[in-house]
Amino acid sequence: YGDHRDLHVRSRRQRQMCIRDSIYIVGMSNGGKMAHALACEYPELIKGVINVVGSPQYGLACKPKAPVNYIIYAGFKDDVVPPFDVVSFDKYFYTPVTDIMKEWTTTFNCSNEKSLTYNDFDLIQEKVFSDCDGGVKVTSLLNMNRGHSWPGSEDNAGFCRSNKQSDIDIEECKTKINSWGNDFLLQRLFN
């Protein structure tokens, strides 16, 4: 009986590791804040996170209990969730991206930093921290040309309503073609 129980426990651990190796969370704005929070609360279940323009409100940022791959993407011209220690248009303060990066890279003992600049579509400054605990990477992407938007889409593309919400005084959502942003983020996540 003891051998059977041991086999069951090992099998369960192997399944958990397979599941962890396949879960990635991606979120934009409030969804980015949620992705950030899930990485902190459940790092053992998550392989990686992409937080797009979702820096947590000041004082509410967290750090994971265990290493997890993390990418934070911010728009330099974002006045909804500003990437630096400035107040937003609605008078909220948000955690500066630099503070998040410092906290996570220090917590994970990252020992290598590489800076890159891309100018294929927009001017994007990338900082990749590697040689971290658990073999994870922590990356910041700062789009110097955009504000509160998904990479490869128009600014403020997420602020729209459905046709059933016609009483709301904002534009109706339209199908957007994303010519480069999705691939750009996924390349960073899986490389």
Word description of this protein:
The chain has 191 residues and is of the alpha/beta class. Helix content is 27%, strand content 19%. The protein is built from four helices and six strands; from the N terminus they run αβαββαβββα. A six-stranded mixed beta sheet has the order 1-2-3-6-5-4, with helices on both faces. The longest helix is centred in the first third of the chain and has 19 residues, at 2-20. It is globular. 31% of the residues are buried. The model has no long low-confidence stretch (mean pLDDT 85).
List keywords for this structure.
alpha/beta
Largest sheet: 6 strands, mixed
How many helices? The count is 4
Report the uncertain regions.
Answer: none
N- and C-termini, Cα separation: 44 Å
Q: Report the helical percentage.
A: 25-40%
Shape: globular
- Counting DSSP E segments of at least 2 residues, the number of strands comes to 6
Could you give the order of the helices and strands?
A: HEHEEHEEEH
Class by alpha and beta content: alpha/beta
Tell me the radius of gyration: 19 Å
The side-by-side strand order for the widest beta sheet comes to 1-2-3-6-5-4
- Residue fraction in strands: 15-25%
Summarize the structure.
The chain has four helices and six strands. It is an alpha/beta fold.
